[in-house]
Write a structure and sequence with these properties.
2 domains; DNA-binding; three-stranded antiparallel beta sheet; homodimer
Chain lengths: 232, 232
DNA sequence: CCTCGTTGTATTGTTGACAATAATCATTAA
DNA sequence: TTAATGATTATTGTCAACAATACAACGAGG
């Protein structure tokens, strides 16, 4: 059985040349998967020790994490891992809806035919994985983001790509880890992905944007209800 | 004669408690108004001297500027002030169109009546300033962004607000300084602003978004033609 | 018992020195 | 003359010590 191919969104090569970057990647991963608990206080000297570096590079890592909103920092008082709440997640999903809608529109205009074919193949793979018990985990965790990443990349808009991939998706991943549950109904999601791809293939910008926005706002509704029931 | 009221988008209180923040603000201003030329190389020790600080805080400032894309940094090789090109500006305007369209939609849903009234007054003031020779400079430079800022704030979406105000508007300001010219036809822009405000007042989300997007994509067309003629 | 001010401690902000890296320039061989 | 190669230098990356700040504990006064 072929393993689902690795995600092609290397935020940074894991063997980065600078210590600050490596520390950044490590901490980011630990925040996203909950090893560093939400809302927990960050003490520079402690973390420096923990990640085997000195305060200098660690400080740079923290600053970068602050920029992508994984960390909140208040001057002279210290930093904490962000604590996701519903309002914040709603803001993120709304921004994402807007940006990805635009990305889908641009993809319909600009995506090369070959890439569209490849996108179809990706969805075929996802379909197989849905029926496959162990694949389910993969599909629900990362396959979904993989699809969305390809659309963002196809937009050929650097700003949108960087903000989706570098910031919004990270926060969404973190939210998923938190809730412990997966995005709902993979089959329904897949069907929508196919619709969107088809609109792109037909170069129907308007429809592509509309479908993407509907897809994401639908996803938010289910995520929201999960968060609300967890929160009482 | 009453001076146009100061912009209410203090990115940071100018008397920030930390040296790194003050340095950041200074450099940012210098980049935006061209004192630090586009594409010019940044040498940490030189700048540290120039801004009266040591390399530590200056480094933090540079990192923050990198995050808002005013500076480009390559590991071990140094940093440069970003050099705006047409593709980059197009990406920015497209992202802005998407985000501000959504912001207008949210504003139509959420903006308190009092704030809408205040928005009307702001536009009245702009109208006066258009006929006033010295006001023209103000309106064209900052008044336009002032309006857009209020919509973004009214969306009550933190992510959108921060990204528009903290990043996109800065780059657009920088672009304006570069071209030397002002946004075109203040009267036409004002008319569109009124339309948008009116849609918000009527709580017509769909229309508010549509008008805002049209407004911004129109602005891009004229900016683009200016850039192209400057560039040959 | 509560409030306010004071002191002490922990943590961040800042600095200058040192190490590592990459760009530059001169030198040599083809 | 040009291309490759090696030493040199400028610049960034990293570190550890020092200063400034905010928070907590404590005590005095109401």
């Amino acid at each position: 059985m072929t393993k689902p191919q690795p995600l092609n969104q290397p935020d940074q090569l894991s063997e980065s040349s600078t210590l600050a970057s490596r520390t950044y990647e490590s901490i980011k991963a630990d925040i996203i998967d909950g090893t560093l608990a939400q809302g927990s206080k960050i003490v520079e000297s402690d973390l420096a020790l923990k990640y085997g570096t000195s305060r200098g590079p660690l400080r740079e890592a923290i600053h970068r994490l602050e920029q992508i909103k994984l960390v909140i920092r208040v001057p002279h008082a210290g930093s904490r891992v962000v604590a996701l709440n519903i309002k914040m997640m709603e803001d993120i999903y709304t921004a994402r809806e807007s940006l990805e809608g635009m990305a889908a529109r641009l993809a319909a205009r600009l995506m090369p035919d070959d890439d569209i074919k490849s996108l179809h193949r990706l969805l075929d793979q996802h379909e197989q994985n849905i029926n496959d018990a162990e694949g389910k985990v993969y599909f629900q965790r990362e396959g979904d983001i993989d699809f969305h990443f390809r659309i963002a990349a196809a937009s050929q808009n650097e700003w949108i790509l960087e903000n989706l991939n570098g910031e919004l998706y990270q926060l969404i991943r973190m939210g998923r880890h938190q809730s412990g549950r997966m995005p709902s109904r993979p089959a329904a999601a897949l069907a929508q992905h196919r619709q969107i791809t088809s609109a792109i293939e037909q170069r129907d910008e308007e429809l592509a944007e509309l479908l993407m926005r509907r897809h994401i706002s639908g996803a938010w509704k289910t995520v929201k209800s999960i968060l609300e029931e967890n929160h009482e």
